[in-house]
Amino acid sequence: MELDKIKKFLELARKENVAELDYQSNDIKIRVSFKQRSTEIHLPSNNPISVSDSQRKDQKFSKVDSGPAPAEDLNLILVKAPFVGTYYSSAGPGEPPYIKVGDKVKTGQTLCILEAMKIMNEIECEQSGQIVEICVENENYVEYGQILFKIKP
């Protein structure tokens, strides 16, 4: 199977909203799983080719149960990134940050913005407390599950 045919195969699977698909023919095995961030295609040489799934037009971020998670030390709440994206500490350039170390925060208060796929997502506080540490610098890329803030309840 040529690379162009593989690409068409993947596009069709995405278009049809297939969650998982296996295809095997003689010396080629293809496994597609759109639940994950990437798909592996195993060719006869057993060298996996990673095909990014981040370009799915219909991909939506759902809220992942990411926090609050109790910290192991000092009884802190860890606010973690619910998805990958770019961290913004304020509503826009030149605007004051949503929070600073030492600020008291309430449940539902906006802590920051995470941009993913050109969509600005407000990250809200899930438990009242005091900001002890801001673990990310403005405009930095964050990974899924990365600690953004430490809050003392």
Structure description:
The structure is a single chain. The protein is mainly β and 153 residues long. The chain folds into 2 domains: 3-52, no CATH class; 69-152, OB fold (Dihydrolipoamide Acetyltransferase, E2P) (Beta Barrel). The chain has one helix at residues 3-15, and strands spanning 20-25, 28-33, 38-42, 48-52, 69-70, 77-80, 85-88, 104-105, 110-116, 119-124, 129-134, 141-142, 147-152. A hairpin with a 4-residue loop joins β2 and β3. The longest helix has 13 residues, at 3-15.
CATH topology of the largest domain: OB fold (Dihydrolipoamide Acetyltransferase, E2P)
The rounded Rg comes to 20 Å
Strand content: 35-45%
| Gap from first CA to last CA | 57 Å
Assign a percent range to the helix content: under 10%
For the record, the CATH class of the largest domain is Mainly Beta
The helix-and-strand class reads: mainly beta
CATH architecture assignment of the largest domain = Beta Barrel
Mean pLDDT: 75
H/E series: HEEEEEEEEEEEEE
Number of helices: 1
In terms of per-residue confidence, which ranges show pLDDT below 50 for 5 or more consecutive residues? Answer: 35-42, 45-66
Shape: elongated
* Largest sheet: spatial strand order: 5-6-13-11-8
CATH superfamily of the largest domain: RNA polymerase II/Efflux pump adaptor protein, barrel-sandwich hybrid domain
Question: What's the main sheet like?
Answer: 5 strands, antiparallel
> How is the quaternary structure best described?
single chain
Any idea how many domains? 2
User: How many strands in all?
Assistant: 13
